């Protein structure tokens, strides 16, 4: 299942004007459950950390979370790092057009970060599942944080987070691949992720499941099924508004339940680690 081509198609449509791009961000904020979890933790962090802060958006992608943070507090200076040069140019252009002066994007490899005690917060959303040398990246995050700084990470768990059968995840000959076939691992379990963060030097961690039963249903309705249809034919773009008219209220309720409830298991993990 190819995810990036769909993202590029949507990006092309919503990137025509700053208004459409902002609208796209708002739609993602509502539909993507991980955004609900991330925003909840960012709000909590903001209450405990006043004043001017330096933030690294590690794997900034389309700039969705950078936009949210830059709007939330003009005293937050945010650096977005991504390995894709076209994403960097696109984000720098967009944020320049909307006159956000507290944001900058640079191309970079997270395995080669060389920052020393610069950032108060590092945000890393749906990135670690793409990186083989994960402990090295965690060590780089640790070095980049100021004393007392926090890394906030969202990543798939090993409870089906990559929506893939392990035997076929990278088997091109089988003709079967995961929903997001760029992943290098199926996901983390809590103990594994905790041990890797401690190995990297972090003193304290807090890790919990997201995408429990309600969140997993919401994700299938809001993301998986529509993208499956769009992979068949982009003509399904015409039907999307009618599809979401029916499913959108259901997804909002399911997302709310997932964020407020503690889950014994789930297909995603939220990890917080302090230096």
Can you give a write-up of this model?
The chain has nine helices and seven strands. With 275 residues, the chain is of the alpha/beta class. It has a single domain (4-211, 265-274), classed as Rossmann fold (3-Layer(aba) Sandwich), CATH 3.40.50.150. Helix 3 (33-48) packs across helix 9 and helix 8 (213-232) runs antiparallel to helix 9 (240-260). It is globular, with a radius of gyration of 18 Å. Residues 164-181 have low confidence and may be disordered.
Summarize the structure.
With 275 residues, this protein is an alpha/beta fold.
List the helices and strands and how they pair.
Layout: H1 4-14, H2 18-31, H3 33-48, E1 53-58, H4 64-72, E2 76-82, H5 85-97, E3 103-107, E4 119-125, H6 134-144, E5 145-156, H7 190-199, E6 204-210, H8 213-232, H9 240-260, E7 268-274
Parallel strand pairs: 1-2, 1-4, 2-3, 4-5
Antiparallel strand pairs: 5-7, 6-7
Feature tags:
alpha/beta
């Amino acid at each position: 299942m190819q995810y990036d081509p769909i993202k590029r198609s949507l990006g092309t449509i919503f990137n025509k004007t700053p208004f459409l791009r902002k609208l796209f961000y708002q739609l993602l904020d509502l539909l993507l459950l991980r955004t609900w979890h991330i925003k909840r933790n960012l709000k909590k962090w903001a209450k405990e950390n006043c004043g001017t802060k330096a933030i690294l958006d590690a794997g900034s992608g389309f700039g969705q979370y950078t936009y949210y943070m830059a709007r939330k507090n003009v005293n937050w200076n945010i650096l977005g790092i991504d390995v894709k040069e076209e994403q960097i140019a696109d984000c720098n252009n967009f944020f320049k057009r909307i006159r956000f002066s507290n944001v900058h994007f640079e191309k970079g490899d997270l395995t080669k970060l060389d920052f020393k005690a610069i950032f108060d917060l590092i945000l890393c959303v749906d990135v670690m599942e793409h990186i083989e040398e994960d402990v090295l990246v965690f060590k780089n995050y640790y070095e980049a944080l100021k004393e007392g700084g926090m890394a906030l990470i969202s990543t798939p768990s090993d409870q089906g987070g990559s929506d893939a059968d392990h035997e076929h995840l990278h088997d091109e000959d089988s003709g079967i691949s995961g929903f997001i076939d760029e992943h290098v691992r199926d996901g983390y379990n809590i103990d594994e992720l905790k041990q890797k963060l401690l190995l990297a030097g972090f003193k304290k961690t807090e890790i919990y499941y997201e995408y429990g039963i309600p969140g997993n249903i919401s994700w299938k309705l809001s993301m998986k099924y529509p993208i499956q249809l769009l992979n068949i034919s982009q003509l399904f773009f015409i039907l999307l508004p009618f599809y979401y008219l029916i499913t959108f209220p259901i997804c909002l309720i399911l997302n709310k339940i997932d964020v407020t409830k503690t889950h014994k298991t789930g297909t995603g993990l939220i990890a917080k680690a302090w230096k």
